[in-house]
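Lay summary. Proteins are chains of building blocks that fold into shapes, and those shapes determine what they do. In this project we predict the shape from the chain. Here is one chain we studied, written as its sequence of building blocks.
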Amino acid sequence: MEDLTTGPLTRHLLKTTSFMLVTMIFQTLYFLIDLYWVGRLGTHAVAAVGIAGNFTFIVLALTQMLGVGTTTVVSHAVGRKNRDDAQLMFNQAQVLAVVTGIAFLIVGMLVRLPYTRAMSADAETAALAAQYLLWFIPAMALQFLMVAAAAALRAVGNFKAGMIVGTGTVIINMVLAPFLIFGWITGHAFGVAGAAMTSVLPAVAADACKSTALGRTAALASAAPFLSKSLRCIGTPPFSMACMLHPPTTDTLSSALFTR
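And here is the predicted shape, written in a compact code that computers can read:
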């Protein structure tokens, strides 16, 4: 743990923002590069990825609740100099992340086909969106665990680890994209599904790095409901704000209806 209650405030702010800035730059580059490669597949592929991308905003809203709540409760324990309580809250947050991720995976897979058919202007776009979501939904489900762990690391003042893992996954995404989408070298082109595969593999690698922390959650699972209530109370405001700032489903539905 790093004590952020001592030392110059300016130094702490610069250190915090610099790591977050690097991560955000690489994430923006990933979206731009991914859009560049998918654009070469045609307009139907671009539309399919856009429709499937609505799931990103849903996960963003849910992980806002999880991330803000985890950072708050863990940082409070750290501020009280209670290392055991901070470890307990971190482990409980991981339990909640696993449960939420599994629930999202199940629901997402159940609504995948009805959703793509309802939101697409034609059968080809619907088929491509369904192919993309088949891989993209598991990738998004893995984000819950990553967000909870990164939030806890921020709470104890460790920003470097989250930046390294986040930036590393984005770089892997960017490198793998043309190989999986167009079959460079391998000769096996997966098309629009390959774009989603580039999100799954780095997410699995990132979560594997946190397997040691997950090994301690089982014994603490019985205490998780108490913290879950605290996380919901603290995280609900940012969750609500994210929902209001990103209402993608309504916009996409309107676009789909006007293009028919």
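What the prediction tells us: The chain has one domain: 9-244.
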